[in-house]
Design goal:
The chain is an alpha/beta fold and about 200 residues long. The protein has five helices and eleven strands. About 40% of the residues are buried. The model has no long low-confidence stretch (mean pLDDT about 95).
């Protein structure tokens, strides 16, 4: 699995976490991204640097310095490393044998119900975010509002200032991924490392 991409020339500011909106295998997620078409049927591939499957296995799909197509809004592709976490998210797609506990958070001002990540995924995503933030000299923190993870698109002034962990929800209204829970866990891990 490897996406053909060009290298990013701007500094890396963010690790952008997503969910796949399906319970497909990592190979199938890769194929669906590579073969994606627009509504008009024209090729419109997307790409990401890493995929984390249901069992916590991490697949690298592109060099971390490549400019992938996973978050065009807010210059996410220009400044971000993308991590896709396999989870049907808020969708009602078949579970394919991966039943998840549902949780609800207010994202973009509305209640969003989504499937929680499995413990192995959480551990892998935290480890991957730690490694990426360390490699790029980024703090292991999420954007905050009143002490909690910012629950919507970051305003431009915050987006310019923030360095570290983000979700797709921080760049594009209507995108609730990867939910707030995993971002809270990554942020809490970062705070624990600071206080150790």
């Amino acid at each position: 699995m490897h996406f053909l991409t060009r290298m990013r020339v701007q500094e890396t500011r963010w690790v952008i976490n997503h969910w796949t909106a399906s319970e497909n295998s990592a190979d199938r997620v890769f194929e669906n991204m590579r073969d994606r078409k627009s509504r008009e049927g024209k090729p419109e591939p997307v790409s990401v640097h890493f995929i984390v499957d249901q069992l916590g296995e991490i697949f690298q799909c592109a060099d971390a310095d490549a400019r992938c197509a996973h978050c065009a809004a807010g210059n996410g592709n220009t400044y971000g490393v993308g991590v896709e976490i396999i989870n049907r998210g808020h969708g009602l797609a078949p579970s394919k044998g991966f039943e998840r506990t549902r949780r609800t958070d207010r994202i973009h001002g509305v209640p969003v119900s989504y499937g929680e990540f499995f413990p192995a995924q959480i551990a892998a995503v935290i480890a991957l975010n730690v490694a990426l933030c360390s490699a790029y000299g980024l703090p292991l923190r999420a954007p905050l509002l009143d002490g909690d993870v910012f629950p919507t698109v970051m305003p431009p002034v915050l987006a310019l200032r923030h360095r570290g962990v983000t979700g797709h929800l921080h760049f594009e209204r209507g995108k609730p991924d990867p939910g707030l829970d995993i971002l809270r866990k990554i942020h809490a891990h970062g705070m624990a490392l600071l206080n150790a």
